[in-house]
What we know:
By secondary structure, this protein is α/β, with parallel strands linked by helices. The protein has a single domain, classed as Aldolase class I (TIM Barrel). The chain is built from 8 helices and 12 strands. It has a 12-stranded mixed sheet, with helices on one face. Strand 3 (88-93), helix 3 (102-108) and strand 4 (112-116) form a beta-alpha-beta unit. The protein starts with 10 loop residues before the first strand and ends in a 26-residue tail after the last helix. The site of S-adenosylmethionine has 21 residues, from strand 3 and strand 5.
Amino acid sequence: xxxxxxxxxxxxxxxxxxxxxxxxxxxxxxxxxxxxxxxxxxxxxxxxxxxxxxxxxxxxxxxxxxxxxxxxxxxxxxxxxxxxxxxxxxxxxxxxxxxxxxxxxxxxxxxxxxxxxxxxxxxxxxxxxxxxxxxxxxxxxxxxxxxxxxxxxxxxxxxxxxxxxxxxxxxxxxxxxxxxxxxxxxxxxxxxxxxxxxxxxxxxxxxxxxxxxxxxxxxxxxxxxxxxxxxxxxxxxxxxxxxxxxxxxxxxxxxxxxxxxxxxxxxxxxxxxxxxxxxxxxxxxxxxxxxxxxxxxxxxxxxxxxxxxxxxxxxx
Length: 316
Ligand code: SAM
């Protein structure tokens, strides 16, 4: 699949639920939209992923909401991983439910994983997630490494006044563990109006606080600029959707838990593909790819995303 600007579309992110066991303040509004009761079934997701693979999708990411709250998550991963043409299957999770599932998921095909971790302070973790336990997330991270998942990427949304004082301590994790700690700029989407302008800090702050960072070669199609602390086992990634957007390299489509394709994370455009099969399904996917804008409108503390959905209803 190639879009109208010549970008090869090879990556599909599947939101498998928009329910979450946490309720991160920047992601999910308090008492926000009720979650989709009728989320796509395992069979529907696999049918869509197969059609996508036939159109050239090589990479799938399972996300949510929180994907691990789905009871059939291991079965789903197993079916997705077996689809011909899929070279890379991964998951984004808060990891608080991961520990008992990590080995099963690894066997089912989840060989690498992204885990959200915004702070190393248990009280702040509880506050930002509205009740989550840091210890559960850390246990999940340990279980992912023990299961053999590699790389384990830790996603930290950088929020001024909340965790910008932890840049060094979070980065320090990479000295001791072979993880990739990725600082992601807070995006003005969904529930971020409550955060003041100062919350939107550019990733250049990380470079200011860690002048010893050594630049590494970026990976093909990766949206992260990569660095390493001297002699560290792991790496630091900077993902800067505000200060350095990466629309020119965008190779992805997103599927919501209720069956809508989003050509662009930050546009309002959506296309329902639920109930479509065969050629009709593939045509709708090709159409969605063609609807990808060259770039999304500017994002900043005062320029809000045009997406009609909050992140928990898209999957990040
Ligand atoms: N529940 C899973 C998790 O916590 O990783 C997957 C879904 S969550 C919506 C996916 C990612 O989106 C998380 O890493 C989260 O931090 C990120 N995210 C949510 N809202 C965001 C925002 N406004 N700006 C930047 N990242 C955001």
